[in-house]
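Running this now, will post back.
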Amino acid sequence: MTINQNEFVNRLKTEWKRLWRERVDDKVRAEGIAIQDYTPLFIDKGTVIHATRDFKALNFKEILEQHKVLNAERYIPPAPHVGGWTKFVKSNITNGKLKKKTLAEGYLEEKTEKQQLKKGGRGWLHK
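Update: finished.
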């Protein structure tokens, strides 16, 4: 059952990617519109899939739940605020500190003193 379910979810993912890749962007109304029927995703031609105001965004997890896929959370990456591998590495392995590598660790750039400004910074005086 899980092999068939994995294949089914992969087909849904490809349809989902194709939906977002082939949408028509209406720049006047600031909307993204589906150009075809995507029956596995329950989206008809002409459906607004992305808008800037007063719009409930499409959710792939809800589509999986409509198809009654078991453990739908497993097929969706976590939200950015929850974190993923990168957050795990930063918080547990590197202790949240990024270490900068220098080309030559012992090299320090020579500090040069600034030259005195000509005429106190007023520029050249022409007489």
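Strands lie at 24-26, 31-33, 48-51. More later if anyone needs it.
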